[in-house]
Structures are given as structure tokens and as C-alpha cells.
Amino acid sequence: MSVPRNPVIIIPARLGSTRLPDKPLADIHGEAMIVHVWRRAVEAGIGPVIVACAEQKIADAITQAGGIAVLTDPDLPSGSDRVHQALQECDPDGLYDAIVNVQGDLPTISPEDIRAVFDPLSDPSVDIATLAAVITRDGERTNPNVVKAVAAFGGGRVARALYFTRATAPYGDGPLYHHIGLYAYRRAALDRFVTLPPAELEQREKLEQLRALENGMVIAVALVDGVPLGVDTPEDLERARAALGPRP
Question: How much is the mean pLDDT over the chain?
């Protein structure tokens, strides 16, 4: 496999959030949260940015901001499926050879981190790339809501993922790594991934990426310096507003 030369960023978004209703449209200093995520993705400069929208309201917010939106089936089971459907819709000829999947609830994500998740695809053995950061808060080490990436970095910034878990792992002295759910796929890897049935460990851990590992796909993890703020609750939204500040 060669180094991807024509990547695209796709941001999946849907309104169905119980803790923060209509989450992608939540106002942050006069703009919908999904627009802030779209702007960070554009600033990454990797390639075109497309928002895969489950609802017309999200598409309207993006197109009004000057972006590209693709409507997808609202009943799709996951963000990966939404990304794949949008890719098939906007690029049926297969011109894009890599896809960066940026979560739509990360309004503070840095363009540098988005670029970091794409870089490991320069290794032809890597099918999928993702991000992690060193856990610095003791409570996160045992928190099952904090997913840990198990990888041996050996002083480097990129390593092969051995496992992902909600448990405290690996055992013993040394850092633990907080997994950050951004992904970069080779196109063939994404095409294959969405056809695979849910896997045994995936269903136990409730972690979709384990489906790829269980089926022999290679995932690389790139280290970044911190964990972006994910917005899931009204309190998270207030923190995002404070972190971003009003646009000048």
C-alpha cells in the first residue's frame, strides 16, 4: 500500500443525544458547535472537509457557514457507517484514498491533532490510525469511561495498538494512555471495516475499534499532548464556551 495522496476529512453528526439534546447545533458564541468542529478541520489543511449529517438542520448550519454537507440515513448504527455512506455518496469513483473521521462533538480539537492522526498512514503496513495522550489525572486510570490504548511507544510518538480497554491497563509501572476517538482510514480499510460483523471483544468492551483488531487489521496510535474537550453535557458545553471565547 502506498502513502495516501488524496485524503478527505469527514465529520459525522446527528441530533440524537439524550444528555444534550440537539448537541451539534448547540450555540457557542453565535455558531453551532458542529461549525466550530468544521472550522478546526478546515484549518488542518489535509484535504476537503465534508459533514455527514443525519438531519437537514445540521446540513443547513454547515452550508450556511460555507461548508459541504451530505445527508445520510439517520438510522445508521455508528459514526463509521455514517462516514462511509457519505463517502460513497460524494465520491462514488473512489478518488479519495484516505479518510480522517473527526468527531462532531470536539469543538476545541486542534488542527495539529487532526494532522497527527493522519501521519501514521505514511507507514504502508498501517490500516487505521488513531490518537492517544498520557493520562495525568489519577482518577482516569481506573475510570471505565476513559478508554485506554495499550501500546508500547518506547520513547517514540507512534506505536502499534495492541488493545483498547476500559480497564486499567497495562499493569505495572509506567504511563497509561487515554484513547482519543479520531481515526484515519485507508479507503480499503474503511470499506472492509463497515462490512465486518460486530466482534466478541468489541461487544464486551463496547469499543468498535476492537472489531478491526480482532479481524487482523493494523491500528497505529499517535501520541498528542492533551485530550480535547468532548461535549456530552450542558456542563461540558459551558467549558467549551469558556475555552473558545467569542470570535473576534
Answer: 95
Query: Is residue 139's pLDDT more than 70?
Result: yes
Task: Give the Cα separation of 153 and 180 in Å (integer).
Answer: 16
* 197 Cβ contact partners less than 8 Å away, ≥ 6 residues apart: none
Evaluate whether 146 touches 135 at the Cβ level (below 8 Å).
Answer: yes
- Domains of the chain: residue spans and CATH: 1-104+230-248 (3.90.550.10), 110-227 (3.90.550.10)
- Burial class (CB within 10 angstroms; exposed 0-12, middle 13-18, buried 19+) of 152: exposed
* Under 8 Å between Cβ of 166 and 147: yes
**H or E element in which residue 186 lies:** strand 177-186
Quick: pLDDT tens for 3-34. Answer: 899 999 999 999 987 789 899 999 999 999 99
Q: Which amino acid is at 56?
A: Q
**AA letter at 42:** V
Q: What is the mean pLDDT of residues 98-103?
A: 97
* pLDDT recorded at residue 1: 64
Type of residue at 191: D
Q: What is the pTM of this model?
A: 0.95
Cell numbers placing 40: 478546526
Strands 128-134 and 49-53: unpaired
* Cα angle, residue 81 at apex, residues 236 and 216 outer, rounded to 5°: 105
pLDDT at 243 over 80: yes
Task: Name the one residue in this structure whose C-alpha cell is 465529520.
Answer: 11
